[in-house]
Amino acid sequence: MNPSYKILFVCLGNICRSPSAEAVFRDTLQKAGMAQQIEIDSAGIIGYHEGEAADARMQRHAAQRGYRLTSISRPIRATDFDRFDLVIGMDDQNLRDLRRKMPPRSRAKICKMTDFCVHRSAHEVPDPYYGGAAGFEQVLDLLEDASQGLLQHLQSLLPSEV
Ligand code: 4NP
After folding, report:
1. Do 23 and 105 meet the contact criterion of CB atoms below 8 Å apart?
2. Which of 56, 80, 97, 134 is paired with 74 by a 20 to 30 Å CA distance?
């Protein structure tokens, strides 16, 4: 079955938060039996880390919860705003940058990952890059919670698929 819906996760560098969002949400989709219907990818606002694997600290924290981070960093491209249905940023600055980069009349909807939180009431997924271990754990806590809400959102959009 061809994927009927495409989601792009975006953070600043595409080495910490958005690769983790991709891995956590892939796991969420697999557990819900929906991995074939939804295509997911991730990208960065900046291309500074282009070609790099995810940050080693983020990989380690994710692995402790059973997630493998496999994506390679790349910057977002103008064509992504037509290729994807939903572009999901991690913080308010990501959203401002995404709106600035989105070409006029693109079809993607832009939203923020924490919009989908169901149990936690966070406003952003904070950048963990310059902080310690607690920041990486917080990223994963928020992504796991928001992934549940995002799954529910998709199930309501694609009722015939579930
Ligand atoms: P991310 O974290 O946006 O979650 O991938 C960062 C990675 C790199 C940098 C900043 C944030 N940096 O400044 O290089």
Report:
1. no
2. 134
86 contacts: CB under 8 Å, gap ≥ 6:
5, 6, 7, 8, 108, 109, 111
Task: State which of 10, 14, 16 you would mutate to test the pocket of ligand 1, scoring each by most atoms of that ligand within 8 A of its C-beta.
Answer: 16
**Fold type of domain 5-157:** Rossmann fold (3.40.50)
Ligand 1 mutation target, pool 127, 130, 136, 142, most atoms within 8 A of CB: 127
**Active-site residue, from 16, 17, 80, 91:** 17
Segments making up each domain of the chain, as ranges:
5-157
Q: Check: pTM over 0.90? Answer yes or no.
A: yes
97 carries an active-site annotation? no
Give residues with Cβ within 8 angstroms of 54, minimum separation 6: 15, 16, 19, 20, 62, 69, 71, 73
CB of 127 closer than 6 A to ligand 1? yes
